[in-house]
From TrEMBL, chain B:
InterPro entries registered for this protein in UniProt: AB_hydrolase_fold, DUF915_hydro-like
Taxonomy, superkingdom: Bacteria
Molecular function terms, GO-annotated: acyltransferase activity
UniProt keyword annotations, A-Z: Acyltransferase, Transferase
Protein name: Acyltransferase
SUPFAM superfamilies: alpha/beta-Hydrolases (SSF53474)
Amino acid sequence: MQTEMKQFWGLIENGLVDWLSSDTYFLLKRILTVIFPLVWLSAMAELVVKGCLTSNGYYYQTLGVKNWLPGLSVWRTFFQLLQQIPAHLIAIMGCYVTAEWVSRFSGDHKRWVGITAVAGYLMLNTSSLSGSNATFYGASLGYKGLFLAVMVGYFVGWIIRLANHRTDSITTQNTIRGWALGMVILFAGIGLLVREFVTTGLVNVFYRFLTYPFQSTTKLLAMLGESLLNGFYWLIGLNGPLAINNNDVVSSLENFAYVITHDSLKNLPYPVTFHTVVDTFATFGGPGMTLGLIIAILLASDDHHERRITWLSLVPGLGNLNLPLLVGIPVVLNPVYGIPFLLAPLASIGIAFGLLKLGWLVPVVYPLYNAIPGPFQGFFGSGGHLSGLIVGLICLLVSVAIYYPFVKWNARLQGRIEERRSE
Amino acid sequence: MIKKRYGWWLLLFGLCVLLFLPGYLTLSKQTEAFKTSKKTYMAPLIMVPGSSATPNRYDGLVTELNKKTTVKHSLLRVLVKTDGQLKFSGKIRARDPQPIIVVGFENSADGEQNIYQQAKWFNIAFKRLQSVYQFNHFSALGHSNGGLILTLFMEENLSKYNVTADRLMAIGSPFNMEEKDRNVKTGMYNTLYKQRLYLPSSLTVYSVAGGTSLKSDGIVPDSSVALGRNVFQGSVKHYTEITVTGSTSNHADLPENPQIIKLMEQYLLTGKPKSSSKPN
């Protein structure tokens, strides 16, 4: 029995090493490495905008930023530029790098392929709201569009490589140009079709489809299921549709109205909702409780690269923005970190749900400001109830404990991956 | 390894405390701000008539007001008996954004001591109304002593509720009773003035005086109404004084005065006035 288990485990490890040292994963890592600086800069600026410069930001309210910072709106615009422009380059860079790499050309040739793919991707995502002008829908160009952008890049790179396969080097340049032109015309045609059916580009249709299973709920199983699916979307490089702190608007408002009129947190109409459980206790550091991963890496990892990325991701992580960590480590498409990424929120949901049902935890009723450090959400959202803080810290500790062995395991596998790639 | 990185962990812990502190130190202020920022759908207009009037005093006025606004206001009358019991008549329509509630008193006699007592009775009625209808903001209109009762209530009891007062219109209210000499201060004025800082700072006050002569509306001297300014200015958000003359501007007729009805529509009612047939 024990040897069978060992064999089985060996198979799993081999499979993981195969995947993590494969060419496809290497390409994906390359893409993520290229976009990391953009993601990081954008996240840092987003933290400043959301937390310090807008009226529902935690630091804006608690530090009274409005009272002492001159030219508030100018600062806001400045940081929004730093946030949005790099973010809008993410999908484009992903598309470009993929097409270049898949085509396996060099020099000008590969640049041609990359530019063709970017043009193709942009054509799929124009907004028809402004008539016949081709304007872009900003969000589609960000991380949200990365998945589709990589697909387009892959397709373009692959087709042009295939077309060029049998030609000799003298005709290569003309062949590539010809095919590039053909591709651009093809995507313009598809883009035209997309505009006929949707006003905001293909990425948004895709997301409308993805968000379909997400419904507001008060049932434990549904919460666990939605959290799992959301985590899974993030892992395969899609923006999970569950926005932090923005769920269950109606029941949250009713809870809030109850507190205002009764001045008491007892007998709330909806003590257990997606908001009081998942939003509040299962999103520390962002989706996947990645604040736990940050602490686990700082505790257990000796990998220089991993530690550097983690330190860089700490500040955005304290504002519940974890894209730098997901892209930098990477957690995306990495099954080793994928498992705890899915499990850690489930543990927190279980803890918070159980304690709320038992009445030992005071639910969050006050609106949560943006960028409150995750473990403090339960405390501030309940108007300063100690149970919120204690449960917050318990959930954090549990998530660290869940991530810890996987950090160790990852370090062991990395050694094998390097061996494999150097062979 | 942990020992080696002791400094870093200390830094991390310090950072967490640093991020926690601003929220912790401003917690009660934030919570309070949340509570007052969210307003309920219903915000009644509470009317208190002057002495010797029953809760039916404003039936005609409400009918008149309803003719002029697109949203109809339902009417609830509350009579507070001398033993503190409440008698209701009329009713509030479901989802009425601004019902009108008239609070009258079994003992509605004039006199300073009576007014203090009526303010206490009003508090009993308000407590019940608020717990039944769950509103967290309201406007009020008081005629004559009714204005004094409302002012006393706002100074002495309103802070006990999680309720804010939006607007108060006092019509012909004698803040210095019937005293004609503004240098002679009555006990009522002194009480109102002494407690003025307890008035809600978000309140907007309109004090309307009637003028049948250059000195009074027939009963209440101008100077007594005007002393309201000393009570309200600086304690509330806005204070506006208006004097209405012409026919029906004697003290008793003021609530039916067409000019004053227009002021009520303009300043107290939330329903849009029916549009006039032709724009100018």
